[in-house]
């Protein structure tokens, strides 16, 4: 089995507090994983570690075969992360933001158009990000992930701030990613929404995985 994620005894300290405390995790390529747990459990830190944005204090972690400690450039080139603090430039239009992220991923304008259409934002392409509503901003952030066509999608509370149509777009994007051969990890409190999509359910608390469940019938099996 090809592994998308291999984490062994990972420790990440935030102000000397162990946000991850010797966490172990393996996930196969093509899986959809739901990470559940209370606030402060370490869910976001785990996603940031896998995105190459958090520093390991001890242990090891590999993403798509790349070492997050020594091959961060390769990790970041292969991963797309959606977080509450969307990485969008406020004074640029949606189209300009997506063009920037597409170029970083080695994609052209066709990818931009496809991403805009996928999140139903084609008509707002010329709007600057600073003028967007909360829901529009979330859709634009989703498009910024999709336009890169990453091999690993890391989604932190992806349904937050979206109406029903926007939530359906998130679900459809997860399905698109899996059909394209990618792997998806979702940290969410909206368990009823994400669980039906998941092939793996991980319960995180105190910076460790307390329970790991493999499910049949998630998106990867569709």
List the helices and strands and how they pair.
Blueprint: E1 3-14, E2 17-28, E3 32-36, H1 43-50, E4 58-63, E5 66-67, H2 72-78, E6 79-82, H3 94-104, H4 109-118, H5 134-146, E7 152-156, H6 164-179, E8 183-187, H7 191-194, E9 200-205, E10 208-214
Parallel strand pairs: 3-8, 3-9, 6-7, 7-8
Antiparallel strand pairs: 1-2, 1-4, 4-5, 9-10
Helix pairs in contact: 3-4, 3-5, 4-5, 5-6
What would you note in describing this structure?
The protein is of the alpha/beta class and 222 residues long. The chain has a single domain (3-221), classed as P-loop containing nucleotide triphosphate hydrolases (Rossmann fold), CATH 3.40.50.300. 31% of the residues lie in helices and 29% in strands. A hairpin with a 2-residue loop joins strand 9 (200-205) and strand 10. The longest helix has 16 residues, at 164-179.
Overview in brief:
The protein is α/β, with parallel strands linked by helices and 222 residues long.
Provide the descriptors you would attach to this structure in a database record.
single chain; 222 residues; six-stranded mixed beta sheet; four-stranded antiparallel beta sheet
């Amino acid at each position: 089995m090809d592994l998308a994620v291999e984490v062994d005894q990972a420790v990440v300290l935030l102000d000397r507090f162990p946000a991850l405390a010797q966490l172990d995790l393996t996930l196969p390529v093509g899986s959809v994983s739901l990470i559940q747990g209370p606030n402060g459990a370490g869910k976001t830190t785990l996603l940031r570690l896998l995105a190459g944005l958090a520093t390991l204090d001890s242990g090891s972690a590999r993403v798509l075969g790349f070492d997050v400690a020594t091959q961060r450039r390769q990790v970041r080139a292969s991963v797309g992360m959606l977080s509450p603090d969307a990485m969008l430039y406020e004074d640029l239009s949606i189209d300009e933001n997506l063009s920037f992220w597409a170029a970083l991923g080695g994609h052209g304008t066709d990818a931009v158009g496809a991403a805009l259409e996928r999140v139903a934002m084609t008509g707002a392409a010329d709007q600057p990000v600073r003028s967007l509503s909360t829901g529009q901003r979330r859709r634009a952030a989703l498009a910024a992930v999709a336009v890169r066509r990453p091999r690993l999608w890391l989604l932190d509370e992806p349904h937050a701030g979206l109406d029903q149509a926007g939530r359906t777009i998130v679900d459809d994007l997860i399905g698109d990613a899996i059909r394209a051969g990618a792997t998806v990890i979702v940290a969410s409190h909206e368990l009823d929404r994400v669980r039906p999509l998941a092939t793996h359910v991980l319960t995180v608390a105190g910076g460790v995985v307390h329970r790991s469940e493999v499910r049949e019938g998630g998106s990867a099996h569709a």
